[in-house]
Structures are given as C-alpha cells and as structure tokens.
Amino acid sequence: MTAAMTAAPARNTLIDTLRAFALIGVFVVHMFEQFEIYWTAPQDNLTHTLVTTLLMGKAFALLALCFGLSFFLLMDRADRRGEDFSGRFVWRMVLLALIGVAHGLIYRGDILVVLALLGIPLIPFYRARRGVLIATAALLLVQPWLLIQIGFALAGAGWANQPPHHWTDPSLAVFQSGTLVEVLKTNLWQAQATKAWFFIETGRLNLVMGLFLIGLLLGRSGFFDAPERFVTRRRIALAVLAAIALSLHLFRDSLTGLLPAGPAPGMARILAGNILGGWFDLALMGTFVLLVVEAALGPAGPLLRRLAPMGRMTLTFYVAQSLIWVPVFYGFGLGAWKTLPQGTALGLAVGFLVLQAVVATLWFRRFAYGPLEWLWRAGTYRTWA
Predict the structure, then answer these.
(1) Digit-coded pLDDT (tens) for 102-139
(2) What is the mean pLDDT of residues 11-33?
(3) Over 60: is that where the pLDDT of 276 sits?
(4) Contact between residue 71 and residue 119 where contact means Cβ atoms under 8 Å apart
(5) pLDDT, tens digit, for every residue of 66-100?
(6) Contacts of 141 by beta carbon, 8 Å cutoff, 6+ apart
(7) What phi and psi values does residue 302 have, to the nearest 5 degrees?
(8) C-alpha of 192 from chain center
(9) Mean pLDDT of all residues in 20-48
(10) Distances (CA, A) of 182 to 101, 186, 306, 321, 347
(11) Mean pLDDT of the chain
(12) 3-state secondary structure (DSSP) of residue 148
C-alpha cells in the first residue's frame, strides 16, 4: 500500500462516532424498506411505527449535518496551511457526484449526488458571518416555498393542489421483477427523476442545505473539539429539542387537521404535514446527537468509541451495503422482497453492521483510509501519495 493509505492523520473520534450512527441508521432504514420496494405495499404495524418514528429522516438528517461539518474541517485545515481549498472542493464534489451516479445505477435512493450538488453552494458561506449563517439556515428550515404553496392551495390555485409528481413511481415494479439491465436503465433516468421530484416537492433540499449550514456553524464553534466547554448550553438545547420533538410527535396530526382536506388530495394539509414532519426529524436528530455527546463524555465513552472506525469508512460502507443487499431484495437477484420477513431483515441488518464494525477496526490497524475514501482523496489531490 502507498504512504497515503498508511499515514495516520489526526481524527476527531466523536465526529467519527456520529458518522457511524448516521451510517447505522441509514442502513437499518434501507433494510426495513427492502431498498424501497417496501413502499409498494407499506404495512401499519409496530415495526413500521418504530422505524419511521425513530430513524427514518433522522439518520439522513444526521448524515447531512456531518457533511456540513466535514466541509468546514476541510476548508479550515487548508486555511491553516495558508491554502484556498475552494477550487479543490468543487473538484471533490464532482468526484463524489460521479461515485453517486455509479452507485445510483444499482440503488436509486443514492444520496451522494444530492450531497455533491448542494455541497458546491456551501463555498461562499465558509467565510460568512455567524448571523448570516443562522438567518440563512433558519430561512431554509422554515420551508418558505412550501408555505407559499400552502397559501396558494388554500386559495384554490390549481397548480398548488396537483398531486406531487413523486407519487407516481413506476420504478418500484421494475425493482420487484425487472432484470438487471432493466433496473440499470430505469435507474439511469426515470427513477432519478422521481427521486429529484421527491426532494423538491417535500422540501428535502431545503432541509439538507440548512443542515449543511448548521454543521458548518458547529464546526466553526469548536463544539465537537471541546464539548465539555458547552455543558450548560448543551443540556438546555437537549431539553428544548426533546420537548419540541415530543410536541410535534403528539400534536402534528391535530395541527395539520386544522387545514382543509379538500380539494382532493388536500395538498395544504399534506404540505403542512411535510413541514412539521421535517421539523420533527430535525428536533429528534438533534436530541440524539446531544445524547450521544453526553454518553461519549461519560462511562459509555469507551464503548461508543468502538464505533468510530465505521465512521471513518462511511463512504465505503454506504456503497457496499447497496452492492450487497440490493441483489438480495430485487427481482434480478434473490427476490427476497417476497419472502424475507421484516424482522428477519432487521436482524440481518444488525449482524451485517456488527461485521462492518469488525472489518473497520481491523482495517484501520493497517490503513489510514477506507478503500473508497482513499480513492476519493487521491482523486481530490490528484496524487497517490
């Protein structure tokens, strides 16, 4: 192996642990969803309730937060060397998008392309004032476009009351029974268009960008470098976020019910549910992050740190999970979506995550980067050294 893979860079174990939690949550959701096939016939049972309430949207939000934090770390390290990393960061995002395009051919739900495309507009914010970052993040998270659409829907505007494009998803039938070639062709364009509409119509793009900025703010503040300096503020934030999450969980349906259900399909109510659901995801994700920080600084710290190696291989494991499990569930492979019970699938997810934790621990005894992480780094700096 080259020196680039055997050198030992400085790492923030707490950040790597949070990345591991994001990876774990995303994979459990993917296994629960049978890599999206589940949504052809979702079930109203306890497993559905637990996964959708506790993990779905929250793991993704944590991944976006960590991405914004990583952006700050890269830019800051270059700054300390007297370098401007902006141009190289753009190139880094191009490479990430290419990895995402390749990954998306197998699994339509790839998030790498979205992260890459939204990562580039982060660059001007790196030197923005704190107040600008807070105001911009708040504006994005408030979801102004969805609020405007709600207003027009209530006024009876036809365009605002049209069923969303992403509600029509012929790709799922291809995933169930299509050949590998048919899945690849579908994922090349049609399935990606549906995903793009989902991100646009549900406000997910705004949430991602807002979380990027929050991650940037946390990185700039040094929160994860010295969390012990923020004890009082951490615990106040934990109480506030937990209260918000609980309130939204208990009263979201009552609040959306204040809006009319018509004209069909009742887009004002549906859009309000999207907004409140996004806020619930953010509040619960923030609660989880602060609980992990509390635990990491306490007696559970040594146990949590065992997850950190997984966080150093997030890109490798994220792609590998799809390459291994999509053929298990999809029709071109084992077609297990028809026969594998959800409970068994989640049990297999836990076992696979344990395996990944072991692999990561053994890998980093010899190497400094995961395989895809090293290739991405080599491409970023255009050197194998």
Answers:
(1) 999 999 999 999 999 999 999 999 999 999 999 999 99
(2) 96
(3) yes
(4) yes
(5) 999 999 999 999 999 999 999 999 999 999 999 99
(6) 206, 207, 210, 278, 279, 282
(7) -60, -35
(8) 17
(9) 96
(10) 16, 6, 41, 21, 30
(11) 95
(12) helix
Query: End-to-end distance of the chain based on CA atoms, in angstroms?
Result: 10
Q: d(Cα 108, Cα 105) in Å, to the nearest integer?
A: 7
Helix, strand, coil tally for the chain in percent (to 5)? 75, 0, 25
Give, to the nearest 10 degrees, the angle between helix 267-296 and helix 13-32.
Answer: 140
Q: Report pLDDT for 1.
A: 44
Residues 6+ apart with CB under 8 A from 321: 27, 30, 352
Backbone angles phi, psi at 336, to 5 degrees: -70, -10
In which residue are the tokens 């102004």 written? Answer: 144
In degrees and rounded to multiples of 5, residue 219 shows phi and psi of -65, -45
pLDDT above 90 for 320:
yes
Give the CA distances from residue 323 to residues 107, 296, 326, in Å, rounded to whole numbers and listed in that order.
Answer: 8, 32, 6
Amino acid 8 reads A
Question: In degrees, to the nearest 5, what angle opens at C-alpha 103 toward C-alphas 97 and 105?
Answer: 110
Query: Whole-angstrom Cα distance, residue 361 to residue 317?
Result: 13
**Residue found by looking up tokens 């949070």 in the block:** 18
Return the H-helix or E-strand segment holding 70. helix 58-80
Cα angle for residues 19, 214, 69 (degrees, 5° grid): 40
Amino acid at 380: T
Say if CB 214 and CB 274 are below 8 A apart: no
The structure's pTM equals: 0.94
pLDDT at 255 over 50: yes
What band does 383 get if pLDDT is binned at 50, 70 and 90? Answer: confident
| Tokens 């299509």 sit on residue | 178
User: What's at 271, amino acid-wise?
Assistant: L
Contact of 363 with 313, CB cutoff 8 Å: yes
C-alpha dihedral (20, 22, 24, 25), degrees to nearest 10 = 160
Q: Are 17 and 296 within 8 A, CB to CB?
A: yes
153 CA to centre of own chain = 30
Dihedrals phi, psi of 129, to nearest 5 degrees: -65, 155
CB 183 within 8 A of CB 174: yes
